[in-house]
Amino acid sequence: MNADAPDRHARAAQLGEMRRASRPIVMVTAYDVAGARAAEAAAVDVVLVGDSAANVVLGYATTREVSLDEMLMLTRAVRRGVRTALLVGDLPFGTYEASDAQAVATARRFVDDAGCDAVKLEGAGEMASRVRAVIAAGIPVMGHVGLLPQGARVPDELRAKGRSAQDARRIVLDAVELDRAGCFAIVIEAIAAPVAELVTQRVGVPTIGIGAGRGVNGQVLVFHDILGMADAPGPRFVRRFAEVGGAMRDGLAAFADAVRTGAFPGPEHTYGITADELDQLRALLGD
User: Fold this and answer.
1) 257 lies in which domain range?
2) 27 and 155 share a domain?
3) Is residue 45 within a helix (H) or strand (E), and if so which, with residue range?
4) What's the whole-model pTM score?
5) Is residue 90 very low, low, confident or very high in pLDDT (cuts 50, 70, 90)?
């Protein structure tokens, strides 16, 4: 069950309490009920239904291709598995940029239809107005600066940001603008670590890094990257904490082999019927 507006804001504000207490924030992505339950069992603080689902779940080349209906379907599944973590939904490309009214309508669908506690959107500038409008509608907003995947039309455009003084200045100012607009937390993606540290020093809300070094208040990685389920090597900031993908392939190969050799199913995997009932069935069938 998603909370009402005051409760949503109170839950989101708990991340600020973690920052003040110097407690690192753990955020992971999830895209289905199994992933959500795994995240819950690991006691993570935030579960993000990221638009990275476009790549790792739906097979699109970029995050720009995932639809609102697809994101809502995935989010509803994750909601069924999340009980204690803060659930954040990623507003997909093309569903919030046009106007404040469009952003509010999309955010409401994530909260009312899919059960989110909060939403995330990319960018600052004009997007700060979208942030203020969504917050005014009673929905907490997580910001996102640095590398903005929704701005990448092809995968080759996904490159680290903040490597020049001018670019770094823009990122810092974007983060400050989102802080002033009312974001309860800000994701900082793929920027030079010293710049991420400067961002964290200049905003009052928690910063959650992905490829942004250690000078932030928390970390997030994509579910499939954490567990080694992605087919291709990830960005340099990815660390694989397990090799689930290899275990999946090995398990499926063993299953296929067992079927082809007749080793599966065995007697212990089958159901029986009494001889009397089987005789009656044959009589009914005219055998």
Assistant:
1) 247-285
2) yes
3) none
4) 0.93
5) very high
